[in-house]
Structure formats: C-alpha cells, structure tokens
Amino acid sequence: MQPSNFDLFADHEPVQQARAEQIGEQAWVLRGLALPQVDRLLPELDTVIAAAPLRHMVPPGGFSMSVGTSSCGRLGWVTDRRGYRYSSVDPHSGLPWPALPKVFADLARTAAEQAGFADFAADSCLINQYVPGAKMSLHQDKDEKAYAAPIVSLSLGLPAMFLFGGFERSDKCQRIPLLHGDMVIWGGVDRLRFHGVLPIKPGYHPRLGEQRINLTFRVAGSA
Ligand code: MD3
Ligand code: FE
Question: Mind telling me which InterPro entries this protein's record contains (predicted)?
Fold first, then answer.
C-alpha cells in the first residue's frame, strides 16, 4: 500500500517555514509561525488563565490598564504601589504562577532560533488580553534583569496595529499589522525600542471571539 503524505508526516511536529519580515537590525516578524500549534496552545492557555485569572493592573499613580494581564512561568509581572516588577508569586492567589506549558516554551525557542537567537529559554510568559478598544501606550520593556536575551511575542485572535518605534519616545514609529499566529522576535540592538499597540478594532475571530491575546516570552530573572 502506498502511504499518503498525511501518513508520512503523522508522527512529526507540523513543520512550517514562516514568512520572515525584518523590521529592525535584530527584530523580525515571522508570519503565521504559530498556526500549526494553535490547537495545542489554546487549551493550555485556558488552563493557565483558569488558575491565574486576567486582571487589570493599576500602575503606580495611574489609571487601570485597558489590557487584562496574567502570567505563567517561574516569574510573572505584577504592579503595586511600589511600581512594576516580576514576582514568583501571583498576588491574586498567593501561589506560584502556573508552569510554562511545554508547547509554549518549544514554540518560543523555535521562533527565537529562526530569528538568530540560539538557546532561548523563557522564565516568564506575560499574557495580555485586548478587547475591542484596548490599547497599549508607547513604552519600553525595561523590567527584566538583563537585556541579553530577546523577547518573543505571539499574537492570537483579533488583528492589531503594532507601533515599532525608535529609542526616544518621540521617534517616528513603523506601523506593523499583527495577525493571528504571527510571532515577533526582538533583541540585541532592538531590545529597548519604544513600542505600543493602537486600540483594537471591534471584530469577531473564529477561534478567539471578540478579543486579541498576546503572549510575550521573556528571560526576566538573572541570566
Ligand atoms: C518591543 N506587548 O507586553 S508585543 C508588552 O502586542 C507589549 O501585547 C505588545 O508590548 C502586545 O510589553 C507588543 C510585540 C513587540 C514587537 C516588537 C517589539 C514588541 C516589541 C520591538 C521592540 C520592542
Ligand atoms: Fe512591551
């Protein structure tokens, strides 16, 4: 009997060479890289969010963020009167954050590798939920202990218009649409660029409904 292609590949990970778009010297968008993994990612995401519910953080002296946030992995991102920081305990439950699911860790490592960053091992995954109208103002990611490792992001659900800026808040931004399954990897000289997300437009995504979920994989603790 002649095996079909389906049988030939049945025992293997779905392999896909993503379309790569270079957006900075060491920053890449890998279009659709996560699509073959989505069926395995979403149940894990549900389990994590059930254990560590999304919450709207209140920055010191600021207003509640429009994005709902949770974490998994050894360290999670928290904010309180003292400011932002990473913590090994979820203040909501008083327990350690849920473990980083293997399918998340493997995907983040593969994405980093395709962007030229070998041996990426995230100790933190920040989960951002955007409902229509939610946005993220221009900022830099500076709360991690060291900047040697890149940050890897995965977009799921509704599309977003991502702002990729320079090293001063006032620098001109590139506008980059991010779609379901796209991954962005930025490190090295691009690690401290300002960036943000424009308000999400109303819509319905067949897999995630009326929301966008963004996962960012980080090395937050000391290397
Ligand atoms: C940063 N999240 O959680 S990730 C954040 O879509 C955050 O939820 C956004 O910023 C989100 O801190 C953006 C994608 C991204 C892509 C390229 C970058 C962030 C970047 C380049 C430089 C710095
Ligand atoms: Fe950021």
Answer: Alkb, AlkB-like, AlkB-like_sf, Oxoglu/Fe-dep_dioxygenase_dom
